[in-house]
Amino acid sequence: MKKTIGIIIMGSILTMANAQTNPLLKEWTGIYGGVPAFDTYQVSDFKPAFDVAIQERIQGLDAIANNAAKPTFENTIVALEKVGDKLKRISVVYGIYGSNITSPEFNKVQSEMEPVLADLSSQYYQNEKLFRRVETIYKSAEMKKLTPEQQRLVWVYYKNFVKQGAQLSASDKQKVKEINARLSVLFTQFSDNLLADENDQYVALTKESDFAGLPDGIVRAAKAEAKERNLTVLGCIGNTRSFVDPFLTFSPNRELREKVFEMFVKRGDNNDAHDTKKILTEILKLRAEKAKIMGFPTFAHWNLTDRMAKTPENTMKLMESVWKPAIVQVQKDVAEMQKIVDAEGGKFKIEPWDYRYYAEKVRKSKYDLDQNEIKEYLQLDKLREGMFWVAGQLFGLEFKPVANIPVFNPDVKVWEVTYKATGQKVGLWYFDPYARKGKRSGAWMNAYRNQHKIDGNVLTIVSNNSNFIKGVEGEPVLISWDDANTLFHEFGHALHGLCSNVTYPSLSGTAVARDYVEFPSQVLERWLSTPEVLNKFALHYKTNQPIPQSLVEKIEKAATFNEGFATVETISSSLVDMKLHLAGSKTIDPTKFEKDFSEEYKMPKEIVLRHRIPQFGHIFSSDGYAAGYYSYLWADVISADATEAFLEAKGGFYDKNVAKKLYDHVFSVGNTIDQAEGYRAFRGKDPKSDALMKARGFKE
């Protein structure tokens, strides 16, 4: 890999003369401290821009490492915070392309650049001189004289160097370097294969009766999808959750439900050119080898060293404590569904492709609650305004749409964010709501630029990206209650970035422990169902009348309905993730592993993993959530406990004092303090799982 870097640098010398004309190398300009110039970028710009930016970063790091002066916080830690700005900017745009606007041309760039970027990261963490300077500061008398935030920053740098192998022997460093390079290639291959299955596969709807029971929005989207694919059929169901879940919920056609279900759960598992099983097996092997070199029994043990959970055992204990009551609830729910099947004369047992359909029938019969009726009040644009209103009530933020900001797709809109009381600018919020070809599935938040004050007050830029099905021009987009929850969830991540008020970029916003980062997002979900939001923003798409109180009461009564399914579906994936990474160097057969897991944990046959192993992008498209998918449950314990703080307060969900404490100790502090200490400062105690069990309607 050293040779590859050498070639890149040679290339950068040749292209240096053209550096000024490459738009990716230019500073972000304009108001708000500059914004990405999406209207000027081309895929062909990435490689030459990376060539120049990588060389600049290497030179900057060399200057810090070889500084003859005694290591100090300013000449080492602050210098590291500032080095390589060009590369940071290019990497942001590169990541946006990789998630939102992939193409065969861009995939080629990824396949070439990922090993180079992995090698650059390895070189950084294995730079002996750099590490010794950081270590010197960490162990020096100067450390005690630094501010608490500065001490935290030094600790973060030291911890990251050590975790990534800075103390290894030269030979072991080389092994880790080679593993990281190979993993970067495999991550890209896994993501490309999964995206190919999502883009290419569909189930055709060939007759009018195939649309029976489907909401109007799905009918229109299915027809539009067929037209976009140039198919000579009436419509088709695309291979994304935004298509699949509503089809499985509302279609009475059992045969078609099974087809759609099988298509979705077999992503990456069709024994064809896009199969992911060999790729992920190699990923697991390499992670296990890396952990062993680092001195840990498994990758899970290594990766949890800087998480709140600390050890895999702690995560397993929590997951298994919630698993058992969830299984009991699923058994009760399935029994109710089976009664409906039997009463209708069905000669079959509930299967996974039946679960959502019959769960919806139980919801209607038990609570007189129809999801389609709720959906008529859930307009995407109105709910977005509702999120803004909540942000204003809790944190004093105000959102105003702005024009003339370059975007990477016409559907992307931008808002200026300020503090309403002072008019002080906070940053920008980009919203990319709709599914399209080349965009990965799911919903997420990105930080284009982190807030910091290392060189004046730098405004943050964040985005939320979703995959809602785009409606007909001029008509509102209606979304499900679950999708509305996801919308609020991802906005919680955005607020975590927007509310950040720290000095150093490495500690900004969402740069917290992985099993804590989901807490701010999950706690914000709770505001969707508050009467204030529903009365103001859950407005009928035809009459503009607020959702009636009778329907709100039905929603409240059914609040914990189907929590057994949701919990089993998600925690099963969390358990599989952890057990895969606790398996050490054992060769994994994904199919057998899933089967053995199902038997060991008595997985209900009516439910499959939310993310089957061959399509588990959270853990195989990067190391991000590897041995960390449990984070959603871990953070939900914290968010359920935090919700209790509001419920106990005089002002309820909009209590100003509790909201200020949430801002002061959670949303604004980033990683400037230990997250456990920050939560105790907010709540006055450590969180317990009691509130979670209560919130999910489980008996302990």
From TrEMBL:
Residues 248-697 form the Peptidase M3A/M3B catalytic domain. GO terms for biological process: proteolysis. GO terms for molecular function: carboxypeptidase activity; metal ion binding; metalloendopeptidase activity. One of its GO terms (cellular component) is cytosol. Keywords: Hydrolase, Metal-binding, Metalloprotease, Protease, Zinc. Binds 1 zinc ion. It comes from the Bacteria. Its cofactor is Zn(2+). Belongs to the peptidase M3 family. This is Peptidyl-dipeptidase Dcp Metallo peptidase. MEROPS family M03A. It comes from Flavobacterium terrae.
